[in-house]
Design goal:
By secondary structure, the chain is of the alpha/beta class. It contains 8 helices and 8 strands; from the N terminus they run βαβααβαβααβββαβα. The strands form 2 sheets. It has a 6-stranded parallel beta sheet, with helices on both faces. It has a two-stranded antiparallel ribbon with strand order 6-7. Strand 6 (129-132) and strand 7 (137-140) form a beta hairpin. The longest helix has 14 residues, at 165-178.
């Protein structure tokens, strides 16, 4: 039986931070559609991820329209949750300030206006961030403005901010429980 709001909308931005781990979580969820920013499409191949490989487990929506046409699926009550993971500091800043000029930021804004819960995995949340770049590990030191934008984002209605893959997994588990759903157990 299909009910309104039966799917997760998972938006991917241009961040490589914990990208593979985030996608592994998305694969464990039931009924997930991926919404890719133009930056995500540039970054995914740097981490060995192709669009055909994503199509094996997800329906894909790409940022190919100026008016973010795929956002209309939110109005049709297809989604119960919007996830933005991983979220660049640019995406966090835009979401925190109400700017919606990419597919992920539009999904976030419209979800909030519709009262659909959002989970945002913000990448720049610690004084020192060790992250996997395409060819090596890199140490980043986020600036005060990144921390301030994360705090602004935390204050937005219908939004939960997580700061690690473990926190994202816990938030998703809580969301699944609230929806009376379960993680996928198959490895496909």
């Amino acid at each position: 039986m299909s009910s309104p709001g039966g799917r997760f909308a998972w938006a991917i931005t241009g961040s490589g931070h914990e990208l593979l781990e985030s996608l592994a979580l998305a694969r464990r969820l039931p009924a997930v559609d991926l919404f890719l920013s133009a930056a995500a499409e540039e970054v995914l191949p740097m981490y060995g991820i192709t669009l055909p490989s994503l199509r094996e487990g997800f329906r894909l929506f790409r940022d190919k329209t100026h008016s973010a046409v795929p956002v209309g699926t939110l109005y049709e009550e297809h989604y119960h949750t919007v996830v933005v993971a991983p979220a660049t500091s640019n995406t966090v800043a835009k979401c925190a300030l109400g700017i919606s000029d990419t597919l992920p930021t539009n999904m976030f804004a419209q979800a909030g206006k519709l009262g659909i819960p959002s989970l945002v995995f913000a990448c720049d949340t610690e004084p020192v961030v060790l992250t996997r770049a395409p060819h090596d590990w890199v140490t980043l030191r986020p600036r005060r403005i990144e921390f301030e934008n994360v705090e602004r984002l935390r204050a937005i209605e219908h939004c939960s901010v997580v700061c690690s893959v473990a926190q994202l997994e816990a938030a998703l588990a809580a969301r699944l429980q609230a929806l009376s759903l379960a993680w996928n157990t198959s490895s496909s």
